[in-house]
Design a protein that fits this description.
Elements: H1 2-51, H2 55-84, H3 93-103, H4 108-123, H5 128-142, H6 160-176, H7 178-189
Helix pairs in contact: 1-2, 1-3, 1-5, 1-6, 1-7, 3-4, 4-5, 6-7
């Protein structure tokens, strides 16, 4: 029973690491998604501001913006988020143990060996007691190791500038030249509507009495 408990606790720790592994991907993916959304948004509105395109080009810009951002959101955020709840295909215990081993090199071989020994018990009954004893010993030795520490969520802070820089540019534009953002965005959103480009000059009629 003790052998089973030690091994079950080992698997629980690996599962906790796996959840944190995908949670880390969600955080990183959210930052990347926000960065791409902001950069692409700025690019689209600036292109439209300079080009003042017709409905066809604006439709392409609009649907490209929506399509690319939805794809990135699903790929980098939604899928990892589902995997934190073990929905969909997730990394195996052995794959997780290899990642853990990269952070804790001193226990890498022992962790993999423990998992592989357990697989052997399902394939053969020879020396079963000896194999179980070895699993129990190795699992007990691995119990104090904090597997979840192999993932440092705070390291995602280094990706924040990717989103912060375009956000700052957009804020500056909104204050310095709001029409660049607002008017272009309005035309992109209403991409099926024809807008007449203002004349580069205007007539001023002065009546002298």
């Amino acid at each position: 029973m003790n052998n089973q408990n030690n091994y079950d606790l080992l698997l629980q720790k690996i599962d906790a690491f796996t959840r944190k592994y995908y949670r880390n991907q969600v955080i990183k993916g959210s930052i990347y998604t926000l960065a791409v959304l902001l950069i692409f948004f700025l690019s689209v509105v600036l292109i439209e501001y300079v080009g003042w395109f017709g409905t066809g080009v604006r439709s392409v810009l609009f649907y490209s913006f929506i399509g690319i951002n939805v794809f990135i959101l699903v790929r980098l955020v939604a899928i990892p988020l589902l995997k934190t709840y073990r929905l969909g295909k997730i990394i195996s215990h052995e794959q997780a143990s290899r990642i853990i081993g990269n952070h804790f090199p001193n226990i890498s071989d022992k962790l993999l060996n423990t998992l592989q020994l357990k697989e052997q018990t399902a394939d053969t009954v020879k020396n079963l007691a000896l194999v179980n004893a070895s699993i129990n010993q190795k699992a007990a030795e691995l119990k104090p190791v904090p597997f979840s520490n192999a993932i440092d969520l705070s390291k995602n802070k280094r990706f924040l500038p990717y989103a912060a820089v375009p956000l700052l540019v957009m804020i500056v534009l909104l204050f310095a030249a709001p029409n660049v953002i607002k008017d272009s965005a309005r035309r992109i959103v209403n991409h099926n509507t024809a807008f007449e480009k203002p004349a580069p000059f205007r007539f001023v009629v002065t009546i002298t009495i």
